[in-house]
Amino acid sequence: MLGVKLIMFIQEIQGKRNILRAAWQQLSPEATSGIFSRGLFWWVNGLMKKGYNTLLSVEGLYATDESLKSVWLLKKLNSLWEKRKADGAGKHALFFSVLASLKDILLLAVFPRLCLTGFKFAQPFLIHRIISYVQDSTTNTRNDAFGLIGATALIYMGIAVRNNLCTRRETPLIYCNLQISMGFYRHMVFRSVTMARGSLVSLIYTKVLKMDGISADSDGSSTLSLTSADTERICSSFENFHEIWASPIEVFLAIWLLEQRLGLACVAPAVVVICMFAL
Q1: What are phi and psi of 176, to 5 degrees?
Q2: Rounded to two decimals, what is the model's pTM?
Q3: What is the DSSP string of 22-64?
Q4: Ranges of each domain in the chain
């Protein structure tokens, strides 16, 4: 059974571009990659190898994913914005229209972010269980040991920790989180950033091109300035969009873990954070 599952696993992680029909042969490797290739960003290796051997050009890059093309993004955002304005929405109509146009990609990042939180807080439980196993090994069975090995592999494959030596004197190792769950999460986040930038910049240029001569002379330059600093500021805010709901969850979990060990003393770190935030 293990051998059969290993063969199935190897077959699953193999690329399947060679069996695609001609109409889909030009798709980006990102669009045709499986879960393992995306989690490890294995699909980028071909482009990096090509860039190492030759000088990259626009024609040599991967084809743009259909969901990232500005034509589709502009059409979706413009229809949502016009609908909200027709319904009498206020000055935040564009903001909510952007969120509505990106709701699919934003929701796709929720599960990887929850996995990241789960793997992060699973480590204290794992370490506590291992210490308990070592201290009282007489009452534990062999299956308990294999279970701990499996749990350790599962958690640290999810977190994918790599050891880096920080100095020449062989000081303690620094654990750099190259997290698989973080990879999925950041992948979805930066796709949302790219989609927000593509839709907003396209919308701005579309509105500018529809201005009359007088409006273009008076407001054209200030409108085009939105495509640089303002658009970049808006898009960069999407990088921390999910931290709005994920950070409070992690804070509550951390306080709960401290309460299990320290009792009411767990309130002290929370008070310090609140005081510093107020200042």
Answers
A1: -95, 125
A2: 0.72
A3: GGGTTS-HHHH--HHHHHTTGGGHHHHHHHHHS---TTTSPPP
A4: 2-53, 66-104+191-240, 242-279
